[in-house]
Design goal:
Layout (H helix, E strand, L loop, with lengths): L3 E5 L3 H13 L3 E5 L2 H11 L3 E5 L7 H10 L8 E5 L6 H8 L3 E4 L7 H8 L10
Parallel strand pairs: 1-2, 1-3, 3-4, 4-5
Helix pairs in contact: 2-3
The structure holds manganese (II) ion (MN).
Manganese (II) ion binds next to loops.
């Protein structure tokens, strides 16, 4: 069964690139352009991993990951921040908010999928029913 990844990203070019790279490697990708739609999809699609842009219109990525981690239905899904914020302390801030990892933009097509795979749980046996 294909592993499913939810991408929450407002930039269309990044959505296209990430979707292309992951589908090329056999993943199923679902995406949302903002936080509220991302939270809804996380509940509906039950992805194996969530890739989360931090700089989103309205509800930012920090608020999105906090909401994911406070909902028992989505708490156990690993969330990886994908962000161009390069300032010192942002990595710590995303981890403190509940992310399990951090991938920097701009997305490098040669290293992006391996970076995602390092953060993707091995088994399909999720805690979530
Ligand atoms: Mn953005």
């Amino acid at each position: 069964m294909k592993r499913r990844i939810l991408l929450i990203e407002d930039n269309e070019n990044n959505r296209y690139l990430v979707t292309f790279l992951l589908e090329q490697h056999g993943y199923e990708v679902v995406h949302a352009p903002d936080g509220p739609q991302g939270l809804h999809l996380a509940n509906q699609a039950r992805p194996d991993l969530i890739l989360l842009d931090i700089q989103l219109p309205g509800m930012d990525g920090y608020a999105v990951v906090r909401a994911l981690k406070s909902d028992p239905a989505t708490r156990s899904i690993p969330v990886v921040a994908v962000t161009s914020y390069a300032m010192c302390g942002d990595r710590e801030r995303t981890i403190a908010a509940g992310c399990c990892g951090y991938i920097e933009k701009p997305i490098d097509p040669d290293t992006f999928v391996p970076a995602v795979e390092r953060l993707l749980p091995e088994s399909g046996g999720k805690d979530v029913p």
